[in-house]
Amino acid sequence: MTTQAIHSVLAMMNITAEQAAGNTLTLSAPATAGAGFMSELNSSIKQINGMQIEARRKAEKFELGVPGIALNDVMVDMQKASLALHLGIQVNNKLINAYQEVMNMAV
Q: What residue ranges carry the coiled-coil annotation?
């Protein structure tokens, strides 16, 4: 897996997270050398965590009977958070495979 492919996957994760959060789609410029891969990865992990926290909060509010919280909204938010987590796990697996492939290359 090339670095371009990794950046592409991370960009798709960010777009998916933005869409799941209900934000408008914004395409950002490629990360600068200072921002780097690690900051993109941390940002994606924080977005996934934020989605899960928000889904849990909405579920708790629904369980407490707070007006304005519908079951379908709770279920959709929980599915979005679950999907984002599974996507993050798949990206993690791909990164590990890419790392192992690079480490096994003959010099």
A: none
Decide: pTM greater than 0.85: no
pLDDT in tens, 82-97: 999 999 999 989 989 9
Q: Give the whole-angstrom CA distance, residue 30 versus residue 22.
A: 22
Is residue 84 within 8 Å of residue 16, measured between CB atoms?
A: yes
Q: Which residue, among 52, 55, 54, has the nearest Cα to 75 in the 3D structure?
A: 55
Characterize 67-101 residue by residue with b for buried, 16 or more Cβ atoms within 10 angstroms of its Cβ, and e for exposed: eebeeeebeebbebbeebeebbeebeeebeeeeee
Residue ranges per domain, the chain? 3-19+37-103
CB count in 10 Å sphere of residue 38: 9
